[in-house]
Amino acid sequence: MTDLSTDFTRTRAAFHLPSGVTYLDGNSLGPMPVAARDRVAAMMQDEWAQMLIRGWNEAGWYAQPRVTGDRIARLIGAGDGQVVMGDTLSIKVFQAVSAARALRPGRRVILSDSGNFPSDLYVVQGLARAIDSDLRVVEPEAVAEAIDDDLAVLMLTEVDYRTGRRHDMAALTAAAHDAGALTVWDLAHSAGAVDVDLLGADADFAVGCTYKYLNGGPGAPAFIWTHPRHADAAQPILQGWMGHAAPFAFQPDYEPAGGVERMRVGTPPVIALAALDAALDVWDHVAMPDLRARSIELTEAFIAQVEASCPDLTLNSPRDPARRGSQVSFRHPQAYAVMQALIAQGVIGDFRAPDVLRFGFAPLYNTAEDVSRAVGIMARILREGSWDRQEYHARAAVT
Q1: Which of 217, 260, 332, 376 is least enclosed by beta carbons within 10 angstroms?
Q2: Burial track 46-72 (b if 16+ CB lie within 10 A, e otherwise)
Q3: Is 358 a catalytic residue?
């Protein structure tokens, strides 16, 4: 598919985008693909309703985690048979880190950074207590110098959820390997947003979610990738029924399936996978270099326009696009209230504590017009001070 040319007018038409709304929060939850409603309805009517339990074989439900994993593999620089779907991202982080740690039995240190998504750190804090390991957390800029001969696993989110800062996956993986350690990469803010190349970077394990840039819907299942050199040696602590070599033999003892199949845990979320399958159709017409170029174009324009018209905001993302994912954040002392005022005016981004306005740019559906409209409305809100209303300061449960 190297000769593929991406038509972004066509990809935008594949999504339901409410009238009057500029949506810049696809890095948190992607919009609904137009095809998803019918795809899920057909699955429920033609498969679940008519086939009942026969759907596991006749409709291919049981194989869905592998089939869908192959569709995602192309987007992250992986090969067929190397990615499998299921469960939540936290569970996949637990599996990947525990498997990587077990492959380095003489070492105790798991290294991460303070820009990692907190839930990843929560998972590994608990895991480290259970397996007698030490979790060390350093500033993002200090990761390379913190890699030493005590390191077992380097666990990083490639694109920082708050700032958009992008780690150099290939360089840090090489440094970890030189020290005898393995790597686990969280691609939550990378998959479908930037040009990921897991095999090219020689990474060891990777995980990611599908409800952000991949547009699989709220609660869409996560994925996990294992480099082929580890696929038949990895032994995650969490061993589930679907990861057994013969699950329907109902043997009392666990025997891992071959390859990445052993990373399956529970019953696949079939309805959610149907929605995700519809979302992935659009990617059949997308060249990842085109996507990355469009992302840079949009984020560069946004930064330039904000800095020209919103002097009260301070850039909180790397200025160099090569060091940035597909999101941009700015700081403001009253960022939460400013974001609520923006949302009320039809510009949807989100807030991250303590003072960050965060905007995600999804090239599949965001345009230069979205950039200009969002900046124009934000400049007016800041200039007029219309964000300073009581209702905009009231914190909701989800920010």
Answers
A1: 376
A2: ebbeeeeeebbeebebbebbbebbbbb
A3: yes
Which one of the listed residues 211, 223, 336, 365 is annotated catalytic? 211
Q: Exactly one of 186, 204, 277, 370 is catalytic; which is it?
A: 186
Annotated ligand binding at 267? The verdict is: yes
117 is catalytic: yes
Tokens describing residue 138: 């350093």
What letter would DSSP give residue 2?
A: T
Instruction: Assess whether pLDDT exceeds 90 at residue 62.
Output: yes
Asked if 55 and 61 touch (Cβ cutoff 8 Å), the reply is yes
118 is in an annotated binding site: yes
Summarize the confidence of residues 273-296 as an average pLDDT: 97
Distance from C-alpha of 121 to C-alpha of 136, rounded to nearest angstrom: 10
**Residues 152, 234: one domain?**
yes
Quote the tokens at residue 386. 């219309």
Instruction: Tell me the C-alpha to C-alpha distance, in Å, between residue 86 and each of 248, 272, 299, 366.
Output: 18, 10, 32, 29
Query: Is 1 within a domain?
Result: no
Is 70 exceeded by the pLDDT of residue 256? yes
Q: What is the pLDDT of residue 1?
A: 42
- The tokens describing 151, both together, are 């390191």
CA 5, 7, 8 angle in degrees (round to 5)?
A: 130
* Strands, E assignment, 124-222: 134-138, 151-157, 182-186, 205-208
Rounded CA-CA distance 301/297 in Å is: 6
100 in the same domain as 13: no
Same-domain check for residues 273 and 307: no
